[in-house]
Amino acid sequence: MYNQGKKNIPKITCDRLLIKGGRVVNDDQSFYADIYMEDGVIKQIGDNLIVPGGIKTIEANGKMVIPGGIDIHTHFQMPYRGTFTVDDFNQGSKAALAGGTTMIVDHVIPEPGTSLMEAYDQWRQWADEKVCCDYALHVDITHWSDSVKQEVDTLLKEKGVNSFHVYMAYKDFYQMSNSELYEIFSFLGENGGVVQVHAENGEIIAEEQARMLQMGITGPEGHVLSRPEELEAEAVFRAITIASQTNCPLYITRVMSKSAADIISQARKKGNVVFGEPITASLGTDGTHYWSKNWAKAASFVTSPPLSPDPTTPDYLNTLLASGDLNVTGSAHCTFSVAQKAIGKDDFTQIPEGVNGVEERMSLIWDKAVTTGKMDENQFVAVTSTNAAKILNLYPRKGRIAVGSDSDLVIWDMDAVRTVTAKTHHSAAEYNVFEGMELHGGPLVVICQGKIVLEDGNLHATPGAGRFIPCSPFPDYAYKRVKARKQLTVLRAVPRGMYDGPVSEFSPMSRGGTPSASARTSPTKQPVRNLHHSGLSLAGPPTPDDLPIRPAGRRIVVPPGGRSNITSLS
After folding, report:
1. What is the pLDDT of residues 454-501, one digit of tens each?
2. Burial call 100-119: b when 16+ CB within 10 Å, e when fewer
3. What is the DSSP string of 499-568?
4. Would you say 95 and 355 are in contact if contact means Cβ atoms under 8 Å apart?
5. What is the model's pTM?
């Protein structure tokens, strides 16, 4: 059904290509070799290759040849209150290719209460008609029920979706309770899915938003003031705790602050299976712009969690990305026009959230991490492509240059320099949050499905040419450690004798944790003492009827500090 309307759309022609004299860079090694591609697949790698005649040859002249980038987090053509983000699958994927990204992973966001399968079908139709590069899908779980659980099971086993996104924010809309999170994590952990989490404390955010508006703070600065980074950090810690209890791989999207990144780093050092995703914006800019006098500019930075007002945050996140504490990057590219953002001109809570970044992601990471000496070229490949492919269970088809891998390649020019500006970017957005930034390093040639799509600065993208790439469950990158832990952490009851001592009588507990009304007024039970009442009585000493009754001839023997397992009375 997804190919309807695509019959007249030409697929990418799989040219025979030979790249000569390049330095092949994978996540684990670099070496000089020629690469021959045919039918969209790498056929040979080495020196003095024997190839057919009449092929196109590209001279790399010693430049790096790297796997095409994988942007694991985009929001193209996302519906929002009767409109859509300004970059649809055509425009967004063109911007991706222009930056060296040859595959994107978009988020399916069903309206709460609607079918996940129907939303998935709709996103497939939108993407198949327009997308210029290969793509996969995450599905957001915006509500939870038995029917949703069945749909998640179908998506996992039959529809090529292995990652599902849940929200700890957006109270009364998408936010899940702790018990719902526990159930979702448990189900996905048992069935081979990866849980992605938007981590913020939605309850406190709602209170803080109301407080800001009451104070008369209605502009974009109210967005960051109502979402301090402690609320991101608290939710990250809570998500890691739940994932640990349910033995489920966890993926934290949009890591925006130092404190959230530190918690992920500490959890990874303890052995937790958790992946942290800083986005292009959090690696390249900060939240000081929320106080810009230009409302439209300030609003263009509104995203959640917000960019940190601490200007040293991007450098800190790049350092953790280079060290492996954070290990995958996305752009969270979600662009709105100024007119769309202006729906919140009098109330910051109404500003549509999202920033650009799909085109700038790879160059920005090279500039901020590689040219500064934090990260080497192999780690650059890992965080921009390989690790994402492993999480998606697509490695080594994607994310690696090897015989049999897809021919999605980039000839990378380390010496390229460009200045970012909205005037020349490929997004339809009027603002660019990296405006005026000079970036070193960029794609010279981009090859997607074995065809040159970027050469000499000219983009040759074909709408509808991209393919849906299904992702299977139980990716080794996430589940090898999970499976080992399950074998080691089998819970067993402690063998012990039956307790045969006395048992006190208590009145039933209500859901609120206090005795029920019927129990409190029952004439057949001893009244429960209210510990909040004073022990002082003006009615004189207690009568014998008021004293607690202890069976004659028995005394309770309890050692200092209490007794953990009383099995007899003497």
Report:
1. 999 999 999 999 999 999 999 999 999 898 888 777 788 899 999 999
2. bbbbbbbbbbbeeeeebbeb
3. P-S-----PPBPTTSSB-HHHHH-TTSPPPP-TTS-S--SS-SPPGGGSPP--TT------TT--S----
4. no
5. 0.87
